[in-house]
Amino acid sequence: MLGLPLTFAAPLALAALIALPALWFLLRVTPPRPRRIDFPPLAIMADLLGRRETPARTPPWLLILRLLAAAALILAVSGPVWNPSGTGAATGRTPLLVMLDNGFTSAHDWRERLRVATDAVEGAARDGRPVAVTALADPTAPVEAKVPAAALERLRAIAPRPHLADRETHLPALAAFLERSPAAAILWISDGVAGSGEDVFGKRLGDLVAARGASLTILKADRPPALALSAAEASGRLTAHVLRAGPNGRDTGLVRALDQKGLPLAEQSFTFAPEAFDTEIGFDLPVELRNSISRIEIAAERSAGAVTLVDERGKRRRVGLIFGGTSDEAQPLLAPTYYLSRALSPYADVQEPRGAKSVAESITQLLDNQVSVLVLADVGALDGPTLARVEQFVDEGGLLLRFAGPRLAAGNDPLVPVRLRRGGRTLGGTLSWDSPKTLAPFAPESPFAGLTPPADIGVRRQILAEPDGELPGRTWASLQDGTPIVTAQKRGQGLVVLFHVTADTTWSNLPLSGLFIDMLRRVVNLAGAKALPSGDAGARATAVLAPRLTLDGFGALGTPPAGAIAVSADSSERATLEHPPGFYGPVDGGIAVNALAPADRLKPLDFAALSGARVGSLAGAETLDLRASLFTLALMLLILDTLAGLWLSGFLRRARGFVSRPAAIVLAVLALGALVGLPGPVQAQQGQTARAGAFDSALATRLAYVVTGDEAADTASRAGLSGLTQMLASRTALEPGDPIGIDPAKDELAFYPLIYWPIVAGRPQPSEAAIRRIDAFMRNGGTVIFDTRDALTARPGGPPTPEAAYLRKMLSTLEVPELEPVPPDHVLTKAFYLVDNFPGRYATGQTWVETLPPAGEGAERRPARAGDGVSPIVITSNDLAAAWAVGKRGEPLYPIVGGDQRQREMAFRGGINFVIYTLTGNYKADQVHVPALLERLGQ
Question: Which of 349, 536, 782, 910 is deepest in the core (most CB within 10 A)?
Fold first, then answer.
């Protein structure tokens, strides 16, 4: 409009502006001001002279004020929108296709991207255009243009995926859409990062757009803001590479190593060199701490790519080395332990016995040091006690790795995976017709599958295995003639592996190759792998592990999606749509799949092939609806007009005895400002009140509630927590202070053990700062009760209520643990009172808490179970605060919905249990309370 980025949703309403001249003449006339007449008793008739009264003209400034108010109302009704063409508006009726990158690289500024996409769809709705929406990291689906309302619903369902986008798979669907709608307008909201594999998406998309005559607009950040992480191991250190797709101003940061409970074990800062795309950091930790690391993440980067999960394969094993030769043979640079130590040191904690005078003493010393892998290089028969000790070590999950040699070839040792022939086999000697043999390719079921044996490896001597029916299943590697070179057998919970050659170069040159290091690493990684099949050890590679916990696009662990597929037990690939990042398999022997492989790097997306596209910035694509601002302006002008009319009519002058004219004007302006800015000052006052009570909260235990801005909900929360506080003081030893209302975005939350948050569907979603502070509060031991208060309107199996939908959207960016309805044996049901449910104003809703770990098989049944700590989140729909709310005289403020006369009493008991549970944790699940609980329960 007039060269400005402005359009109107209802342009016909602007026709009312033609009536402004008529308003000019109508508003010029105003009734005359009432005349003030003194009333002396003797001059009544003299002063009452008949005069002709003529109306006075409206002052020009008041006339202009009224015209401005009328114009503001007309403009507001017309629906003005600023910058509509940035995201979707167009002159024609052609369909709009919104392509949204939703891989983990878009999670950093996801809300901004979703806002731009929403503005685009709303702009198309104003133009009456159909809209198609496709997410480029989602499964491929047909692209169909629908009404804008359906497109908005589709947008609300899109979330970042925890893997790189595979854009090429969507090209056939895009081609089919452009075949049906050749002149469509395409809006690509890109994250600027190349997807998985060779990215030819840009070139092929450019060809499609040019061939069909479509228009393409690309909106992206000026510089890709995403950071990612890939972890590996180098020179004995746990290292991590912090990655970015290009210099983006985020040159420094912090990487944290966490254990399974989310507690930090180590921190390391990183700094990018100028124009660098990656930087390396490392963690130097003792083995015990190193093996406790379960997760490495970039602090304050909410993305699956910024998280690397560590499984058993990433833990550093203790490996004990023993050589069965004499001291003369154990030369520093020639002994088998020298080659083994050099090969194992980069990824294992290698230990050798000190001061031991025999093999038996060496084995005892290393087993006492709790090694995970025991390596015996050319060790012959063992004495009875030592043999029993090693067999116990293997049965309990240890890994015994043996290497051949003259002593093993001459003995008859039961600690081998296959029966051996005495003496061995010599190849390539002066008295032999055979030449040295090399290794055959590894079978797909072998743990060494994927490794390529070099052609220059030669085996000159080996120990032969007696052929039998079990030999093929126990063979991991063999020579070209089929004779085994590596065999293995599972025993108990452990594993016995035998290399049929020596660990030095006397029988082969295998120890001089890089293949030797890779083979040893894969063998050592099997130590403690409880996911190993119960049959032959070589079948591990063919085993599949189901997903147990997976990451969402924001890097939060949760329940695997329905489409997640099991992976092979030796998988080391990056995550995909079918295999999302997370933990696969059982807790004590699974593997981790990460968003990026150790060798992956982020690359910027090449837009050079899209020469005909218009490339813009996300920051400049904001569409602003001006209706609210114009309605507010019109309201302000009408209030000023009312005050001006009162002043001109003389009503304000009558208060001259009370307030002077300047003071009256000042009061009017202040009243107008208070009326217009009502939400801001009220919230500021509430925040100041809450912060003023923060010091008192540090001195006394207080319950807190979130101030939602809804007067009814906040009043019920305040009264409810006050009633619960009174009950706690009268029934328990706890004497809490008065409850307090808080703003999660501004107030310190660490003072409050329990926060009550009533859900009000009509209020705006909490800010990003509030979400992050609540997330930190729950991570550090606090508990939040989210009360949707919709038990009366919720229907099982029906669509979610507005309150439930509001809560789902709010929790979508929080790291919420897996939840379950409160089980009957949960410690929460016995923290102070013995209760079986948690009613409030309603009793039909369900109460959800963090899922407890399953009870161990065969363990003694206890009346109370608990996890490692307090559930950080409780979700209910029973409107707890309304049941707790009492007046100044102790009378209930809200009626109870239900037929149980004791419902309010049970609500108070449940509330007391909530508070005691958050303050004391799982102590009631301790064994010392079992007799008393069983007696109370009548068991």
Answer: 910
